[in-house]
Amino acid sequence: MTSSDPEKRLMFYGRRHGRRLRPQQSAFLEQGLAQFALDPDLLTDAADLDPRDWLRPASGQVFLEIGFGGGEHLAARAHESPDCGFIGAEPFMNGVARLCRHIIEGELDNIRFWPEDVRLLLPSLKDHALDGVFILFPDPWPKSRHQNRRIIQPQMLDVLARLIRPGGSLLLASDDPTAKTWMLEAMMRRDDFHWTARSAEDWRQPPPGWPGTRYMAKADRVGRKSAWFTFIRSDHA
Ligand SMILES: C[S@@+](CC[C@H](N)C(=O)[O-])C[C@H]1O[C@@H](n2cnc3c(N)ncnc32)[C@H](O)[C@@H]1O
User: What pTM was computed for the model?
Assistant: First the structure.
């Protein structure tokens, strides 16, 4: 395998399984996978999939969360905006089981999820398929020899620039100093997104309606400061 091999570039370094699921969690997972998971047979080389076809949201808007963890943010967004559609991607099955519980107990019908590496799904989606993307508290991989494992990479941002419609949003958040710098440096190199912050307050405070995430709660507990960077997909470029 060479370093340009797509399979090598798509190596996933996170965990897929954690503690053994309790029977009730397994039941939520099984039901959720059957009803709300996206079918891998959907994948296509044609880049023509429109998530609006899966969710038919009244507003016509669809948002994607990459690495939803336990799904609490995704579920809260879906609950507060029933007229919008939400897609989540997460390969960690214990987290997927939690999302399934949120969907089923909350009777949410505006979420579909991809229980896999998001990089397998994105190339199949059509241009401007998304109104917004959330990447919240991604694994920081702070050692420089692991920087190729970080989810924010130029190739990922190229794909997101293709998928987010002009005027759509990309929200990045982290509590990790290395990750914050990495994200901002990567975004500052681009002319297809612009940062909305006018002052430090704009990135030190969460955006409106912020429901929190599990990892942010962990950061809060140990006194690590979180930051939120909102970018808008430019009309040009
Ligand atoms: C540090 S956790 C944060 C989870 C959640 N966003 C939160 O704030 O609580 C990062 C998550 O990203 C997921 N992740 C990492 N690489 C991914 C990928 N390529 N596609 C989808 N999810 C990914 C991991 O499995 C992990 O659950």
Answer: 0.95
